[in-house]
Amino acid sequence: MTQRSQMLQKISEISFAVNDLTLYLDTHPTDAAALNAFSKFSKERRELLQQYAEQFEPLCPDCVCPDTNNQSASNTPYPGERHFPWIDGPLPWEGGM
Amino acid sequence: MWLYEKRLQYPVNITKTCPKTAQLIISQFGGPDGELAASMRYLSQRYTMPCRQLGGLLTDIGTEELGHLEIICAMVYQLTCNLTPEQVKTAGFDAYYIDHTAALWPQAAGGVPYNACEFQSKGDAVTDLHENLAAEQKARTVYENLLRIIEDPQIKEPLRFLREREIVHYQRFGEALEQVKARLDSKNFYYFNPEFDKHMVSQ
Questions:
Q1: What digits encode the pLDDT tens for the residues B41-66?
Q2: Following DSSP, what letter does each residue of B35-99 receive, concatenated?
Q3: What is the domain partition of chain B in residue ranges?
Q4: Is the Cα torsion angle B66, B68, B69, B73 positive or negative in sign?
Q5: Which residues pair with B107 in a beta bridge?
Q6: Is it true that domain B19-200 has CATH number 1.20.1260.10?
Q7: Which residues of B are less than 8 Å from A46 in CB distance?
Q8: Could you identify which of B23, B49, B69, B154 might form a hypothetical disulfide with B54, taking C-beta atoms 3.0 to 4.6 angstroms apart as the criterion?
Q9: Can you give the residue ranges of every domain in chain A?
């Protein structure tokens, strides 16, 4: 497994936890344990998305930064050239994670 | 509004072309119990829900269903993206190929086009939540039908994930129904339409 796919898998796992907790909290909005878990995982998710975007392509619009994204210059038609990094990386349905 | 996140909710890595399987799985894109109908059902129902919490839950589940639609489409795409003319002819995918080549188009396994009549948005929270509970169970049944006849583990894994999500959504809708009932007259929960007879819903 490449470093890229390892990081992507971690983001998937943590995002799944955040998503599932969101639905649970929608119907149990005062559950203390779920609130704590949500805060913990959601913070971790933000950090992971940021780290991933610095090394590879940004996964969400809020992570897009032409000057700090994709420092490994992978999966980009413009290596070494200042460009819009939102276009970098494979499309999600292309597989090969 | 929505913001796109450039990843699948669950990874799809299918390496073996199989148009026949694609033709079956496409039902969970545009079929009667598919993910397109699921997302449109919840995202349409949410506006008139009698309490804010319920509108929020429908938004979040409807949004996740859009992600599931994307997983199903990624599976169909990967199963058909390297088709040879011979595979098109022999695998039962020929009729679909004539109209759509290998593009994604929402239809049921039997070829019936996607139709908004697959879901209801009835404007009664009790009615709509029962519709949603049934929809999650129907989708689970379809995933089980697919899992029973598909053998490739690369295809089974995401289908298993999607099946499990139907169960979680069923649970959440069940809880939501109890919460709506708690705000109605316990002597006769079903006598009023909580979305229309608003004075009967305790705030």
A1: 999 999 999 889 999 999 999 999 99
A2: HHHHHHHHHHHGGG-SSHHHHHHHHHHHHHHHHHHHHHHHHHHHHHTT--HHHHHHTT-HHHHHH
A3: 19-200
A4: positive
A5: B113
A6: yes
A7: none
A8: B49
A9: 3-87
Cβ(B62)–Cβ(B43) under 8 Å?
A: yes
Contact A92, B70 (CB under 8 A): yes
Residue B101 phi, psi (nearest 5): 50, -125
Condensed to tens digits (0 to 9), the pLDDT of residues A28-53 reads 999 999 999 999 999 999 999 999 99
**Predicted complex ipTM:** 0.96
Q: pLDDT band at residue B90, thresholds of 50, 70 and 90?
A: confident
Give A63's DSSP letter. Answer: G
Residue with tokens 């039962």: B92
From the CB of residue A5, how many other CB atoms can be counted at a distance below 10 Å? 13
Contact at CB, B6 and A93, closer than 8 angstroms:
no
> How many CB atoms are closer than 10 A to CB A36?
10
- Which residue's entry shows tokens 């991933």? A52
Residues of A in contact with B77 (CB under 8 A): 93
Please give, rounded to a whole number of angstroms, the shortest distance from the CA of B13 to a CA of chain A: 5
Query: Which of B12, B70, B175 is facing A95, going by the closest CB pair?
Result: B12
Cβ contact, residue pair B74, A57, below 8 Å: no
Q: Is B92 left (phi over 0), alpha (psi -120 to 50) or beta?
A: left
Q: Is B7 on the interface with A (CB under 8 A)?
A: yes
Which residues on adjacent β-strands are paired with residue B113? Answer: B107
Q: Which positions in chain A touch B3 (Cβ < 8 Å)?
A: 60-62
